[in-house]
Specification:
By secondary structure, the protein is mainly α. It has helices at 6-29, 37-54, 62-82, 88-106, 113-124, 128-145. The chain is globular, with a radius of gyration of 23 Å.
Length: 151
C-alpha cells in the first residue's frame, strides 16, 4: 500500500469536515422523523397565502366557498405532513379541524343556513378544548423557527 501524501490527507480531512458540517445542518433542520423545519415553514407560508386568497371569496358563492375551503384543507394537510415531530400533533389537529369544516361545507347547501351552521358547529365541537392551545403552540413554533429575525 502506498503512503498517503500530504495533499491526500488534507483532502480527506476537508471531506470529513464537510461531512460533519452537513450532518450538523441536517440535524438542526430535521426532527427524528426527518421532517425539515424549512420544508414545514415553506408549506405553512403557502397555507397562509391560500388562506389569504380565500378571503376574497364571496361567501354567497357556494361553489367558490367549497373550493376555497377544500384547497385550504389540502394545504393544511401538506403542512401537517411536513411538520417536524415537535409540532406535528398540533398541526395535524388543526389540519383535521380544517378538513372537518371543509366536509361540513361540502355536505350542506349555503341556502340552508341553519343546516350549514349546525354542521359547522358539530364539526368544530370535538376540537373546542384543544384547538386554541394547539394553534398557540403552532404560532409560537412558527415565530421561533420560520420568521426571520430583522437585521
Amino acid at each position: 500500500m502506498t503512503a498517503m501524501t500530504a495533499r491526500q490527507r488534507w483532502f480527506l480531512v476537508a471531506l470529513a469536515a464537510v461531512a460533519v458540517v452537513v450532518a450538523l445542518r441536517m440535524t438542526v433542520l430535521a426532527g427524528d422523523d426527518g421532517a425539515s423545519v424549512e420544508e414545514f415553514c415553506d408549506e405553512f407560508a403557502h397555507l397562509l397565502l391560500i388562506d389569504e386568497l380565500s378571503l376574497a371569496v364571496n361567501p354567497n358563492d357556494d361553489a367558490s366557498t367549497r373550493e376555497a375551503l377544500e384547497r385550504t384543507a389540502r394545504q393544511f394537510g401538506a403542512a401537517a405532513d411536513a411538520a417536524p415531530a415537535e409540532i406535528q400533533p398540533d398541526v395535524q389537529l388543526l389540519a383535521d379541524l380544517t378538513a372537518a369544516l371543509s366536509d361540513a361545507i361540502a355536505d350542506t347547501d349555503s341556502r340552508e343556513t341553519f343546516d350549514r351552521a349546525a354542521a359547522l358547529i358539530s364539526a368544530q365541537d370535538p376540537y373546542l378544548e384543544t384547538q386554541d392551545p394547539a394553534a398557540q403552540r403552532v404560532v409560537d413554533y412558527i415565530t421561533r423557527n420560520c420568521i426571520a429575525a430583522p437585521g
